[in-house]
Recover the amino acids of this structure.
DNA sequence: GGTCATTCTTGTATGCTATACAAACAAAGA
DNA sequence: TCTTTGTTTGTATAGCATACAAGAATGACC
Protein backbone atom coordinates (compact mmCIF):
# COMPACT_ATOMS: atom_id res chain seq x y z
CA UNK A 1 0.00 0.00 0.00
CA UNK A 2 2.81 2.42 -0.79
CA UNK A 3 3.64 3.19 2.81
CA UNK A 4 0.15 3.93 4.04
CA UNK A 5 -0.66 5.87 7.18
CA UNK A 6 1.50 5.26 10.15
CA UNK A 7 -0.48 5.10 13.34
CA UNK A 8 0.89 7.02 16.27
CA UNK A 9 2.49 4.67 18.76
CA UNK A 10 0.57 1.60 17.63
CA UNK A 11 1.99 -0.65 20.32
CA UNK A 12 0.56 1.19 23.31
CA UNK A 13 -1.67 4.16 22.59
CA UNK A 14 -2.04 4.96 26.26
CA UNK A 15 1.47 6.18 26.80
CA UNK A 16 3.13 9.35 25.67
CA UNK A 17 6.05 9.10 23.33
CA UNK A 18 9.44 9.37 24.92
CA UNK A 19 11.42 11.22 22.33
CA UNK A 20 14.42 9.18 21.32
CA UNK A 21 16.22 11.20 18.71
CA UNK A 22 17.95 14.44 19.52
CA UNK A 23 15.55 16.59 17.50
CA UNK A 24 12.59 14.93 19.17
CA UNK A 25 13.99 15.49 22.63
CA UNK A 26 14.58 19.11 21.77
CA UNK A 27 11.03 19.62 20.53
CA UNK A 28 9.55 17.88 23.52
CA UNK A 29 11.59 20.01 25.88
CA UNK A 30 10.66 23.23 24.12
CA UNK A 31 6.99 22.29 24.33
CA UNK A 32 7.32 21.60 28.04
CA UNK A 33 8.97 24.98 28.58
CA UNK A 34 6.33 26.86 26.64
CA UNK A 35 3.58 24.95 28.42
CA UNK A 36 5.06 25.78 31.82
CA UNK A 37 5.11 29.45 31.08
CA UNK A 38 1.61 29.70 29.67
CA UNK A 39 -0.13 27.25 31.99
CA UNK A 40 1.44 28.85 35.04
CA UNK A 41 0.07 32.24 34.07
CA UNK A 42 -3.27 31.29 32.56
CA UNK A 43 -4.16 27.86 33.92
CA UNK A 44 -5.19 24.74 32.06
CA UNK A 45 -8.22 26.17 30.28
CA UNK A 46 -6.63 29.56 29.75
CA UNK A 47 -3.89 28.39 27.42
CA UNK A 48 -4.78 26.62 24.21
CA UNK A 49 -2.75 23.99 22.45
CA UNK A 50 -2.37 26.40 19.58
CA UNK A 51 -0.93 29.05 21.93
CA UNK A 52 1.58 26.66 23.41
CA UNK A 53 2.64 25.30 20.06
CA UNK A 54 3.09 28.82 18.74
CA UNK A 55 5.19 29.78 21.76
CA UNK A 56 7.41 26.76 21.14
CA UNK A 57 7.48 27.38 17.39
CA UNK A 58 5.91 23.98 16.80
CA UNK A 59 2.72 22.45 15.46
CA UNK A 60 -0.32 21.67 17.59
CA UNK A 61 -0.14 18.09 16.41
CA UNK A 62 3.29 17.75 17.93
CA UNK A 63 1.74 18.21 21.34
CA UNK A 64 -0.62 15.32 20.83
CA UNK A 65 2.25 13.36 19.36
CA UNK A 66 4.52 13.78 22.37
CA UNK A 67 2.00 14.04 25.20
CA UNK A 68 -1.20 12.42 23.87
CA UNK A 69 -3.44 15.03 25.52
CA UNK A 70 -3.27 18.61 26.68
CA UNK A 71 -3.97 17.51 30.24
CA UNK A 72 -1.08 15.06 30.25
CA UNK A 73 1.20 17.89 29.14
CA UNK A 74 -0.23 20.08 31.87
CA UNK A 75 0.45 17.51 34.57
CA UNK A 76 3.95 16.78 33.38
CA UNK A 77 4.82 20.47 33.23
CA UNK A 78 3.33 21.16 36.66
CA UNK A 79 5.17 18.27 38.26
CA UNK A 80 8.49 19.28 36.73
CA UNK A 81 7.88 22.83 37.90
CA UNK A 82 7.05 22.06 41.50
CA UNK A 83 10.12 19.87 41.87
CA UNK A 84 12.28 22.75 40.64
CA UNK A 85 10.47 25.01 43.06
CA UNK A 86 11.14 22.69 45.97
CA UNK A 87 14.78 22.31 45.07
CA UNK A 88 15.24 26.06 44.78
CA UNK A 89 13.51 26.59 48.11
CA UNK A 90 15.73 24.10 49.88
CA UNK A 91 18.82 25.62 48.37
CA UNK A 92 17.69 29.05 49.51
CA UNK A 93 16.92 27.79 53.00
CA UNK A 94 20.27 26.05 53.22
CA UNK A 95 21.93 29.42 53.73
CA UNK A 96 19.96 30.12 56.88
CA UNK A 97 21.80 30.40 60.18
CA UNK A 98 18.99 29.64 62.58
CA UNK A 99 16.04 27.27 62.64
CA UNK A 100 13.68 30.21 62.39
CA UNK A 101 15.42 31.60 59.34
CA UNK A 102 15.49 28.15 57.80
CA UNK A 103 11.74 27.80 58.06
CA UNK A 104 11.09 31.32 56.88
CA UNK A 105 13.31 30.99 53.85
CA UNK A 106 11.63 27.72 52.91
CA UNK A 107 8.17 29.23 53.19
CA UNK A 108 9.06 32.40 51.35
CA UNK A 109 10.52 30.54 48.42
CA UNK A 110 7.63 28.15 48.14
CA UNK A 111 4.98 30.84 48.26
CA UNK A 112 6.84 33.32 46.07
CA UNK A 113 5.25 34.14 42.74
CA UNK A 114 2.50 31.60 43.32
CA UNK A 115 4.60 28.70 42.17
CA UNK A 116 2.36 26.23 43.96
CA UNK A 117 -0.86 27.33 42.27
CA UNK A 118 0.18 25.61 39.09
CA UNK A 119 0.75 22.31 40.84
CA UNK A 120 -2.44 22.60 42.86
CA UNK A 121 -4.40 22.69 39.64
CA UNK A 122 -2.65 19.50 38.57
CA UNK A 123 -3.60 17.92 41.89
CA UNK A 124 -7.26 18.78 41.51
CA UNK A 125 -7.22 17.66 37.88
CA UNK A 126 -6.63 14.08 38.94
CA UNK A 127 -10.21 13.82 40.13
CA UNK A 128 -11.40 14.09 36.54
CA UNK A 129 -8.42 12.31 35.06
CA UNK A 130 -7.54 9.42 37.34
CA UNK A 131 -5.20 8.05 34.69
CA UNK A 132 -2.89 10.99 35.38
CA UNK A 133 -2.99 10.52 39.14
CA UNK A 134 0.09 8.27 39.38
CA UNK A 135 2.25 11.02 37.91
CA UNK A 136 1.05 13.50 40.52
CA UNK A 137 1.23 10.99 43.35
CA UNK A 138 4.82 10.18 42.55
CA UNK A 139 5.63 13.89 42.56
CA UNK A 140 4.01 14.44 45.95
CA UNK A 141 5.88 11.44 47.31
CA UNK A 142 9.12 12.91 45.99
CA UNK A 143 8.31 16.28 47.53
CA UNK A 144 7.83 14.63 50.89
CA UNK A 145 10.83 12.38 50.55
CA UNK A 146 13.23 15.02 49.26
CA UNK A 147 12.04 17.55 51.78
CA UNK A 148 12.49 14.83 54.33
CA UNK A 149 16.04 14.19 53.25
CA UNK A 150 16.93 17.86 53.18
CA UNK A 151 15.30 18.40 56.53
CA UNK A 152 17.04 15.42 58.09
CA UNK A 153 20.34 16.54 56.62
CA UNK A 154 19.92 20.03 58.03
CA UNK A 155 19.01 18.70 61.43
CA UNK A 156 21.99 16.38 61.50
CA UNK A 157 24.45 18.88 60.08
CA UNK A 158 23.54 21.62 62.50
CA UNK A 159 23.02 19.52 65.56
CA UNK A 160 19.44 20.58 66.00
CA UNK A 161 16.69 18.52 67.49
CA UNK A 162 13.38 18.17 65.71
CA UNK A 163 10.02 18.34 67.46
CA UNK A 164 8.58 15.64 65.18
CA UNK A 165 9.89 13.14 62.68
CA UNK A 166 10.92 14.70 59.38
CA UNK A 167 8.27 12.89 57.34
CA UNK A 168 5.48 14.27 59.46
CA UNK A 169 6.87 17.76 59.27
CA UNK A 170 7.21 17.52 55.49
CA UNK A 171 3.63 16.36 55.04
CA UNK A 172 2.35 19.11 57.30
CA UNK A 173 4.41 21.67 55.49
CA UNK A 174 3.01 20.83 52.06
CA UNK A 175 -0.56 20.43 53.19
CA UNK A 176 -0.52 23.83 54.83
CA UNK A 177 1.29 25.41 51.90
CA UNK A 178 -1.40 24.17 49.55
CA UNK A 179 -4.19 25.43 51.77
CA UNK A 180 -2.64 28.84 52.19
CA UNK A 181 -1.88 29.14 48.50
CA UNK A 182 -5.43 28.37 47.43
CA UNK A 183 -7.01 30.67 49.97
CA UNK A 184 -4.52 33.36 49.11
CA UNK A 185 -5.36 33.06 45.43
CA UNK A 186 -9.07 33.32 46.08
CA UNK A 187 -8.72 36.21 48.51
CA UNK A 188 -6.19 38.01 46.38
CA UNK A 189 -3.64 38.29 49.14
CA UNK A 190 -0.11 39.44 48.59
CA UNK A 191 2.69 36.87 48.86
CA UNK A 192 4.01 38.55 51.97
CA UNK A 193 0.73 38.05 53.78
CA UNK A 194 0.72 34.41 52.77
CA UNK A 195 4.18 33.91 54.21
CA UNK A 196 3.11 35.36 57.53
CA UNK A 197 -0.06 33.30 57.55
CA UNK A 198 1.75 30.10 56.75
CA UNK A 199 4.46 30.73 59.30
CA UNK A 200 1.80 31.20 61.94
CA UNK A 201 0.19 27.96 60.85
CA UNK A 202 3.25 25.77 60.74
CA UNK A 203 5.09 27.31 63.65
CA UNK A 204 3.20 25.38 66.34
CA UNK A 205 3.65 22.22 64.31
CA UNK A 206 7.35 22.82 64.01
CA UNK A 207 7.43 23.35 67.73
CA UNK A 208 7.13 27.09 68.17
CA UNK A 209 6.92 27.99 71.81
CA UNK A 210 4.49 30.58 73.08
CA UNK A 211 7.24 33.18 73.05
CA UNK A 212 7.37 32.90 69.28
CA UNK A 213 10.71 31.09 69.09
CA UNK A 214 11.02 27.72 67.47
CA UNK A 215 11.77 24.82 69.73
CA UNK A 216 14.45 23.58 67.42
CA UNK A 217 17.47 23.61 69.69
CA UNK A 218 21.00 22.38 69.70
CA UNK A 219 21.27 18.77 70.75
CA UNK A 220 23.58 19.78 73.57
CA UNK A 221 21.26 22.59 74.60
CA UNK A 222 18.41 22.64 77.08
CA UNK A 223 15.72 21.56 74.59
CA UNK A 224 13.24 18.73 74.70
CA UNK B 1 -40.20 46.53 13.02
CA UNK B 2 -42.74 44.00 14.21
CA UNK B 3 -41.09 43.39 17.55
CA UNK B 4 -37.59 42.67 16.38
CA UNK B 5 -35.03 40.70 18.34
CA UNK B 6 -34.83 41.31 22.04
CA UNK B 7 -31.28 41.48 23.27
CA UNK B 8 -30.48 39.61 26.44
CA UNK B 9 -30.25 42.01 29.34
CA UNK B 10 -29.40 45.05 27.27
CA UNK B 11 -29.01 47.37 30.24
CA UNK B 12 -26.05 45.64 31.87
CA UNK B 13 -24.64 42.65 30.07
CA UNK B 14 -22.13 42.01 32.80
CA UNK B 15 -24.58 40.77 35.38
CA UNK B 16 -26.55 37.56 35.56
CA UNK B 17 -30.30 37.74 35.50
CA UNK B 18 -32.03 37.49 38.82
CA UNK B 19 -35.24 35.66 37.99
CA UNK B 20 -38.24 37.69 39.04
CA UNK B 21 -41.28 35.73 37.98
CA UNK B 22 -42.18 32.47 39.68
CA UNK B 23 -41.45 30.31 36.65
CA UNK B 24 -38.08 31.96 36.20
CA UNK B 25 -37.13 31.46 39.82
CA UNK B 26 -38.09 27.81 39.52
CA UNK B 27 -36.02 27.30 36.38
CA UNK B 28 -33.02 29.06 37.86
CA UNK B 29 -33.21 26.95 40.99
CA UNK B 30 -33.53 23.69 39.07
CA UNK B 31 -30.51 24.64 36.99
CA UNK B 32 -28.50 25.35 40.12
CA UNK B 33 -29.47 21.99 41.60
CA UNK B 34 -28.56 20.09 38.47
CA UNK B 35 -25.29 21.99 38.20
CA UNK B 36 -24.39 21.20 41.80
CA UNK B 37 -24.88 17.51 41.27
CA UNK B 38 -22.97 17.24 38.02
CA UNK B 39 -20.18 19.69 38.80
CA UNK B 40 -19.56 18.14 42.19
CA UNK B 41 -19.06 14.72 40.62
CA UNK B 42 -17.33 15.63 37.38
CA UNK B 43 -15.77 19.06 37.87
CA UNK B 44 -16.09 22.17 35.74
CA UNK B 45 -14.79 20.70 32.50
CA UNK B 46 -16.39 17.32 33.07
CA UNK B 47 -19.98 18.49 32.87
CA UNK B 48 -21.22 20.26 29.76
CA UNK B 49 -23.90 22.88 29.59
CA UNK B 50 -25.97 20.45 27.55
CA UNK B 51 -25.68 17.84 30.31
CA UNK B 52 -26.77 20.24 32.99
CA UNK B 53 -29.65 21.60 30.97
CA UNK B 54 -30.83 18.07 30.22
CA UNK B 55 -30.66 17.14 33.90
CA UNK B 56 -32.79 20.17 34.74
CA UNK B 57 -35.12 19.55 31.80
CA UNK B 58 -34.23 22.94 30.38
CA UNK B 59 -32.51 24.44 27.36
CA UNK B 60 -28.80 25.21 27.19
CA UNK B 61 -29.65 28.78 26.33
CA UNK B 62 -31.44 29.16 29.62
CA UNK B 63 -28.14 28.68 31.39
CA UNK B 64 -26.56 31.54 29.52
CA UNK B 65 -29.70 33.54 30.10
CA UNK B 66 -29.69 33.14 33.87
CA UNK B 67 -25.98 32.86 34.58
CA UNK B 68 -24.25 34.44 31.56
CA UNK B 69 -21.47 31.83 31.51
CA UNK B 70 -20.92 28.27 32.57
CA UNK B 71 -18.19 29.39 34.94
CA UNK B 72 -20.47 31.84 36.70
CA UNK B 73 -22.95 29.04 37.23
CA UNK B 74 -20.16 26.87 38.56
CA UNK B 75 -19.05 29.46 41.08
CA UNK B 76 -22.57 30.21 42.25
CA UNK B 77 -23.34 26.52 42.70
CA UNK B 78 -20.08 25.86 44.52
CA UNK B 79 -20.56 28.79 46.90
CA UNK B 80 -24.11 27.79 47.71
CA UNK B 81 -22.93 24.24 48.30
CA UNK B 82 -20.07 25.03 50.64
CA UNK B 83 -22.28 27.24 52.78
CA UNK B 84 -24.74 24.39 53.16
CA UNK B 85 -21.84 22.13 54.00
CA UNK B 86 -20.60 24.49 56.69
CA UNK B 87 -24.03 24.88 58.19
CA UNK B 88 -24.58 21.13 58.29
CA UNK B 89 -21.16 20.64 59.87
CA UNK B 90 -21.85 23.16 62.59
CA UNK B 91 -25.22 21.65 63.32
CA UNK B 92 -23.61 18.23 63.57
CA UNK B 93 -20.89 19.55 65.86
CA UNK B 94 -23.41 21.32 68.03
CA UNK B 95 -24.41 17.99 69.52
CA UNK B 96 -20.92 17.34 70.84
CA UNK B 97 -20.40 17.13 74.58
CA UNK B 98 -16.71 17.88 74.75
CA UNK B 99 -14.34 20.23 72.96
CA UNK B 100 -12.61 17.27 71.39
CA UNK B 101 -15.84 15.84 70.04
CA UNK B 102 -16.83 19.27 68.79
CA UNK B 103 -13.70 19.58 66.72
CA UNK B 104 -13.87 16.04 65.45
CA UNK B 105 -17.51 16.35 64.39
CA UNK B 106 -16.75 19.57 62.55
CA UNK B 107 -13.83 18.04 60.72
CA UNK B 108 -15.65 14.83 59.84
CA UNK B 109 -18.59 16.67 58.36
CA UNK B 110 -16.47 19.04 56.34
CA UNK B 111 -14.28 16.33 54.88
CA UNK B 112 -17.10 13.84 54.31
CA UNK B 113 -17.87 12.96 50.70
CA UNK B 114 -15.34 15.49 49.47
CA UNK B 115 -17.72 18.39 49.78
CA UNK B 116 -14.84 20.86 49.79
CA UNK B 117 -13.31 19.72 46.51
CA UNK B 118 -16.06 21.41 44.58
CA UNK B 119 -15.46 24.74 46.29
CA UNK B 120 -11.71 24.45 45.97
CA UNK B 121 -12.12 24.31 42.20
CA UNK B 122 -14.14 27.50 42.39
CA UNK B 123 -11.37 29.12 44.43
CA UNK B 124 -8.69 28.22 41.91
CA UNK B 125 -10.94 29.29 39.05
CA UNK B 126 -10.77 32.90 40.21
CA UNK B 127 -7.19 33.14 38.95
CA UNK B 128 -8.44 32.82 35.39
CA UNK B 129 -11.71 34.61 36.00
CA UNK B 130 -11.04 37.55 38.33
CA UNK B 131 -14.50 38.89 37.62
CA UNK B 132 -15.90 35.98 39.61
CA UNK B 133 -13.54 36.48 42.52
CA UNK B 134 -15.84 38.75 44.55
CA UNK B 135 -18.44 36.02 44.74
CA UNK B 136 -15.91 33.54 46.11
CA UNK B 137 -14.33 36.08 48.42
CA UNK B 138 -17.67 36.90 49.98
CA UNK B 139 -18.30 33.22 50.52
CA UNK B 140 -14.95 32.69 52.23
CA UNK B 141 -15.61 35.71 54.41
CA UNK B 142 -18.99 34.27 55.35
CA UNK B 143 -17.42 30.91 56.13
CA UNK B 144 -14.99 32.59 58.47
CA UNK B 145 -17.59 34.85 60.00
CA UNK B 146 -20.28 32.21 60.47
CA UNK B 147 -17.79 29.69 61.76
CA UNK B 148 -16.60 32.47 64.01
CA UNK B 149 -20.09 33.13 65.33
CA UNK B 150 -20.79 29.44 65.87
CA UNK B 151 -17.45 28.99 67.55
CA UNK B 152 -17.93 31.99 69.81
CA UNK B 153 -21.44 30.85 70.65
CA UNK B 154 -20.20 27.40 71.58
CA UNK B 155 -17.44 28.83 73.71
CA UNK B 156 -19.81 31.12 75.52
CA UNK B 157 -22.61 28.60 75.96
CA UNK B 158 -20.38 25.92 77.37
CA UNK B 159 -18.14 28.08 79.42
CA UNK B 160 -15.01 26.99 77.59
CA UNK B 161 -11.95 29.05 77.08
CA UNK B 162 -10.39 29.32 73.64
CA UNK B 163 -6.65 29.15 73.02
CA UNK B 164 -6.91 31.76 70.28
CA UNK B 165 -9.50 34.22 69.07
CA UNK B 166 -12.31 32.62 67.08
CA UNK B 167 -11.46 34.39 63.84
CA UNK B 168 -7.94 33.04 63.85
CA UNK B 169 -9.14 29.54 64.58
CA UNK B 170 -11.72 29.74 61.80
CA UNK B 171 -9.13 30.87 59.24
CA UNK B 172 -6.74 28.14 60.30
CA UNK B 173 -9.47 25.57 60.15
CA UNK B 174 -10.44 26.37 56.58
CA UNK B 175 -6.90 26.76 55.29
CA UNK B 176 -5.94 23.39 56.67
CA UNK B 177 -9.16 21.78 55.45
CA UNK B 178 -8.44 22.98 51.94
CA UNK B 179 -4.87 21.73 52.02
CA UNK B 180 -5.82 18.32 53.36
CA UNK B 181 -8.68 17.99 50.88
CA UNK B 182 -6.51 18.73 47.88
CA UNK B 183 -3.70 16.46 48.95
CA UNK B 184 -6.20 13.76 49.82
CA UNK B 185 -7.76 14.02 46.39
CA UNK B 186 -4.43 13.74 44.65
CA UNK B 187 -3.21 10.89 46.82
CA UNK B 188 -6.52 9.08 46.69
CA UNK B 189 -6.84 8.84 50.43
CA UNK B 190 -10.00 7.70 52.17
CA UNK B 191 -12.06 10.30 54.07
CA UNK B 192 -11.22 8.65 57.36
CA UNK B 193 -7.51 9.17 56.79
CA UNK B 194 -8.13 12.79 55.93
CA UNK B 195 -10.01 13.33 59.18
CA UNK B 196 -7.15 11.92 61.17
CA UNK B 197 -4.62 13.96 59.22
CA UNK B 198 -6.56 17.16 59.64
CA UNK B 199 -7.16 16.58 63.32
CA UNK B 200 -3.44 16.12 63.81
CA UNK B 201 -2.82 19.34 61.92
CA UNK B 202 -5.32 21.56 63.67
CA UNK B 203 -5.05 20.03 67.11
CA UNK B 204 -1.94 21.96 68.13
CA UNK B 205 -3.52 25.13 66.76
CA UNK B 206 -6.66 24.57 68.74
CA UNK B 207 -4.51 24.09 71.77
CA UNK B 208 -3.93 20.38 71.99
CA UNK B 209 -1.59 19.51 74.78
CA UNK B 210 1.13 16.93 74.35
CA UNK B 211 -1.07 14.34 76.03
CA UNK B 212 -3.46 14.61 73.09
CA UNK B 213 -6.22 16.44 74.95
CA UNK B 214 -7.45 19.80 73.80
CA UNK B 215 -6.65 22.71 76.01
CA UNK B 216 -10.19 23.97 75.77
CA UNK B 217 -11.26 23.91 79.39
CA UNK B 218 -14.08 25.18 81.50
CA UNK B 219 -13.60 28.78 82.52
CA UNK B 220 -13.77 27.80 86.17
CA UNK B 221 -11.34 24.96 85.63
CA UNK B 222 -7.58 24.87 85.84
CA UNK B 223 -6.89 25.92 82.24
CA UNK B 224 -5.02 28.82 80.79
C1' DG C 1 24.98 2.72 -1.64
C1' DG C 2 20.23 0.82 -1.58
C1' DT C 3 16.42 -0.85 1.14
C1' DC C 4 13.51 -0.43 4.76
C1' DA C 5 11.57 0.45 9.21
C1' DT C 6 11.19 4.05 12.60
C1' DT C 7 10.76 8.64 14.22
C1' DC C 8 9.27 13.07 13.48
C1' DT C 9 7.03 16.85 11.06
C1' DT C 10 3.51 19.02 8.42
C1' DG C 11 -1.12 19.52 7.24
C1' DT C 12 -6.23 18.59 7.14
C1' DA C 13 -10.67 16.91 8.92
C1' DT C 14 -14.03 16.34 12.50
C1' DG C 15 -16.96 16.47 16.32
C1' DC C 16 -17.92 18.88 20.37
C1' DT C 17 -18.79 22.94 23.16
C1' DA C 18 -19.90 27.53 24.89
C1' DT C 19 -22.20 31.15 23.62
C1' DA C 20 -24.11 34.86 20.64
C1' DC C 21 -28.15 35.80 18.58
C1' DA C 22 -33.13 35.66 16.67
C1' DA C 23 -37.68 35.38 17.53
C1' DA C 24 -41.85 33.32 19.43
C1' DC C 25 -44.45 33.23 23.66
C1' DA C 26 -46.40 34.58 28.33
C1' DA C 27 -47.69 37.63 31.70
C1' DA C 28 -48.59 41.56 33.66
C1' DG C 29 -49.90 46.90 33.61
C1' DA C 30 -51.62 51.03 31.17
C1' DT D 1 -56.15 46.23 23.58
C1' DC D 2 -51.67 47.63 23.34
C1' DT D 3 -47.07 47.76 25.30
C1' DT D 4 -43.51 46.35 28.03
C1' DT D 5 -40.85 42.98 30.14
C1' DG D 6 -39.53 38.40 31.36
C1' DT D 7 -38.96 33.80 29.61
C1' DT D 8 -38.62 30.07 26.44
C1' DT D 9 -37.42 27.85 22.18
C1' DG D 10 -34.44 27.36 18.40
C1' DT D 11 -30.37 28.30 15.24
C1' DA D 12 -25.73 29.85 13.96
C1' DT D 13 -20.94 30.22 14.74
C1' DA D 14 -16.30 30.32 16.17
C1' DG D 15 -12.86 27.97 18.79
C1' DC D 16 -11.08 23.98 20.54
C1' DA D 17 -8.78 19.33 21.27
C1' DT D 18 -7.73 15.72 18.85
C1' DA D 19 -7.93 11.97 15.22
C1' DC D 20 -5.94 11.04 11.17
C1' DA D 21 -3.08 11.09 6.74
C1' DA D 22 1.05 11.28 4.56
C1' DG D 23 5.41 13.30 3.42
C1' DA D 24 10.33 13.93 5.27
C1' DA D 25 14.28 12.84 7.92
C1' DT D 26 17.09 9.54 10.24
C1' DG D 27 19.57 5.61 11.00
C1' DA D 28 20.35 0.31 10.77
C1' DC D 29 21.44 -3.51 8.07
C1' DC D 30 22.58 -5.91 3.74
Amino acid sequence: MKGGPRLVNPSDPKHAIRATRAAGRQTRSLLLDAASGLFKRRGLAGASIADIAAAADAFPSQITYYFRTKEALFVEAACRDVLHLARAAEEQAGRARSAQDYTRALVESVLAADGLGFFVEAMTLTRRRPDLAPFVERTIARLHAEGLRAYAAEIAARGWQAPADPETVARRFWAVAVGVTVEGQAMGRAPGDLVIEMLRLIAPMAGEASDGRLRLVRADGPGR
